[in-house]
Queue: 3 jobs
Job 1
Amino acid sequence: MSLSADEQRILTSVTHDLYNALSSPREQLETAVAHLESAPFALSYANASATLLSMIKLFHPGDRILIDHNAPPLLETWNSAGLKVERLDLQHCDLAAPHYQGVKLIWTTQCNPELLAMAHMQGAWILLDSTLAPGRGMCGADLVYYGHAGCLSGQGDLTLSMLITASETLFEACSVGRIPPGLVESLLTLRALDTLGLRLERAKETADLL
């Protein structure tokens, strides 16, 4: 049975409205997180693997990646793509040394002026892993990363992952072919942002007591 022109218009309108309703929570989440980190761009992904898969397009085989000693083990899977991932204590090494020339990305959980200066002197991007400390801003980094939404949402079972950046070039490169999070994950994380400040404050008070 074929649809009349009016029925086809109604169906098209309903489909368009449904698509917008489903995509809106993700876009709202990205806007809110970009604002949280004082950056213009944010991208959400289904999980950390999807984020790393999207990021790998930034590199070429043979590129060197320096990761902090407490960086997630998942990063070492980049070695199988021809990258050279090296784990070390970034806070106590001299990145200005000739040994570290040719580094493309530095992955750290703490940004300090010396680390930033040495990274940019080497022409490397610096990524700040804020999975456990959302909301501290870019701190001079090129990218901010959330490996999961545990702290962001207060729910440990949400695998949603995010990248935040002030660079339009990095934003566009990491947007291509990305695997976005589901509607439920986006909605739950977005809803939880209202209590993020309070949860972080309480967590700090508890840590101080311990």
Job 2
Amino acid sequence: MEPSLAEQLLQAMSAFKKMHPRLLSDKSLSSGEMQMLFSAKFLSVHHGAHEPVHVSRLARSLHVSMPAVSQLLRSLEEKQLIERTISKEDRRKVAVALTDRGEQLLASARASLISVAEFVVSSLGEDDTRECIRLLNRIADIASIKYTPPQGDGVPGAQSQGKDETL
């Protein structure tokens, strides 16, 4: 019996998601660590300022618990890819910034992803690529209507920020 269309869609999306970490140049990072780096970078420049990102903001953005974020950040800090800074005004607030090594790793990873995307575009052609982009955006919009995480997603005091801000 052939899988339903919903199951086939999930399988295709899963295959695409599994491919992402294999494309990255640094195989020593887990996909969670890589997503944390991309998110920290994205959030630090999101409003035009290259500012460190608070850990609670990362947790909300990624829809994961503070302990999970702390564990990933500890690993990234040990690998010298990020630095954590405790606020002088409020010692409960911790900000995260990428190190030069973290910035270099992300630049390399992004170049790898762009190279694959360019190959896909050249293989599909312009019209099919535009249609694929349109459909992927539509899927994301439709899925975001069905899935709205709980307020703060388990992060004490967190407010929903609307649209997901991950890469």
Job 3
Amino acid sequence: MLRMARGSERAGTVNRLRAWAREGPWTTLRYRDYRLLWCGQLVSVTGSQMRVVAVAWQVYLISHSALLLGVVGLAQGLAMMAFSLVAGVVADARDRRRLLIVVQSALACGSAVLALSTITHLVSLPMIYAVVFLMSAVSAFDFPARQALIPTLVAREDLPNALSLNTLLFNLATIIGPSLGGLAIGIIGVGGTYVADMVSFLAVASALLAMRPLAVPAAGRPRAGFASLLEGFSYLRARRFLLGVMALDFCAMFFGSPAGILPIFARDILRVGPFGYGLLISAGAVGAVIAVGFSGRFRFIRRQGLGILIAVAVWGTCIVAFGLTNGPLWHGAFWRQASWQGPFWLAFTLLAGAGAGDLVSTVLRGTMVQLSTPDQMRGRVSATNAMFIIGGPALGQFESGAVAGLLTPQLSVLTGGLACLLATGIIAVTIPGVRQFRLSLDRPPSPTAPDSATPATDPAPGGPPLAPDQTFAAITDGETTGGE
């Protein structure tokens, strides 16, 4: 009997592992074109992270100024926010695959300029700032085109898994890229690191060239112009639930992100030095990577708006608790000193928990935005989403640093987490369409008005349209746009 029980237990464990493997996000890699894009992006984004490290290192070597080092981030943020809306219009009006090929080629040229000027000792701070600004402006065209392309590469029901894998990709690149960048700077120098980044763009460009060309219906595509931009604004204004989830992400990153003052925590509060700082930086990505393993079940979440609110609340709660690490609540009750004992690993765990919550929010928000938006509007909506995603962390670094200077780093993080939780509650109450939003597999999104439900279909990856029963409807601002 004991043997039979153990055998039954092992069989149950094997079956659960098989079910987990079938439901995991990696099943989306069965789509050839998506697999090509994902693998190419992994190489390219890792190379870009190496370049980010190289630029920061080179600017500091030249200037020895933290302020001038911060100008790099300012140049990136201004360029991305200035060109994102225009990029969204272009992504809706042009073939997105070809647009991405042009973008990757232009970015490779930018890395080539950095490499050549560094190797020939002609590099200067104004040149670096100019190239960084131009490369960021070009990158602004990448996000909306890529985000709008993904739903055309996979079936509708697999989109949450595809977005989970994309989030996994960027988190892996965030972990691997900076480490490889530091190693490359030590072995082949800053110029050689730029060359490595230039080569990495060839991976995603080759993948895009190998993908099957997608049919671009001329009738459904808007013309690039100011009228098209206004049309995008009108679409979002009529769908407050979309603006609500974008604002939710902005508030979470603006108030809650502690990335800008983590060096202070590592050096002066937790006293773990530069290596500990590197671990704290990667903690959020580690939590996100762990959460990806469970993202196959995200497709079963029907009330995605409520899921986003809960995930952001988890983020804010972890940030509040992180602000209390090595303070009276944790320090006096459980341990006597900081360094590599309890406080550091508690801080690491809390940041990892925040990263897991951010992963859930990112995937659900991406699915919500993409599936509630018709294909001819996805570029402009994704571009607006990019402004919130980029603007929140960039401005949040300034906010956290300013509050830390006026008060203390702990109070900066603590008040930021509390403000994030407060903003989540306000959005949940004032925009009920966010918490009431849910998936329904009977009607598609409408490109006209939120209260209409004209039957339509989305193209299946590389093939004919999906069946009408794989379409979508949403509840917006308390009014049903389609049946449940």
